[in-house]
Amino acid sequence: MTWLRAAPWPETPLPTNLPPVTEPQLLLDEAEVADMGEPLVLVEGTLPTFPVYARMPLRSRPADLLLRAAVLDRLVAADAALPDGWRLCLIDCWRSLEFQHELVSYYVAAVGKIDGYVSVPGGAVPPPHTTGGAVDLTLAYQGIPLALGTDFDAFTPDAAPASLESVQLGREAQAARDARRLLAHVLGGQGFAVNPFEWWHWEHGTHFWARVTGMPTARYGAAVPGQ
């Protein structure tokens, strides 16, 4: 199923002087997880949303898009840094552990191997989305959510954030590359770390974020609404 508008896009002026997207480098092998107790807050009404999973046969999907309060604040600041006509568009945010299990089962049945793309629950480190510090998103132009080189949840090598930086590109792929650079520019400026396999997946305060930034302690563990 296709979710996002693929190129050719409408006329979408993009900055051309932004640095290339780079893959995140892990500075730490592991980090502690010590939750700060920061609440989950409602996303709706703050930023544009396009909840793809609401259109899929997934029974345990959370009814609302939720994020940690400070994470949402950073996204709002990143959104404000975008050029006119451009917005961040949030696709998926906090997940319950039940929904994470269901999503894993759904994609294993649909596509088979999901290593690196959907976190399998288990172990000491909670899946990023269960912390409220991970978000799936894209750029929208004039209200249209865009596919930045691949669709959302395209589990292919082209989905890696920097995959468009080292190849010869046609006009449409160049636009996708420049859009990824813009996304990385505004989110990196707010302290987010990108998943090395997915251009749409960004984290702040999570175990992965701590390893990338060199922080010895992650800010967020598994979260429960209302607590």
Rounded Rg = 17 Å
Broad structural category:
alpha+beta
Shape, principal axes of CA atoms: globular
- Helix content estimate: 10-25%
* CATH overall fold name: Muramoyl-pentapeptide Carboxypeptidase, domain 2
End-to-end C-alpha gap: 36 Å
What's the architecture in CATH terms? 2-Layer Sandwich
Work out the helix count.
4
Report on the biggest sheet.
5 strands, antiparallel
**Name of the level-1 CATH class:** Alpha Beta
Count of individual domains? 1
How much of the sequence lies in strands comes to 5-15%
What oligomerization state is this entry in? single chain
Instruction: Give the ordered list of helices and strands.
Output: EEEHEHEEHEEHE
In terms of per-residue confidence, which ranges show pLDDT below 50 for 5 or more consecutive residues? none
Total number of beta strands = 9
Mean of residue pLDDT? 95
Summary, kept brief:
This protein has 227 residues and is of the alpha+beta class. It contains 4 helices and 9 strands.
Description:
With 227 residues, this protein is an alpha+beta fold. It has one domain: 2-Layer Sandwich (Muramoyl-pentapeptide Carboxypeptidase, domain 2). The chain is built from 4 helices and 9 strands. The mean pLDDT is 95.
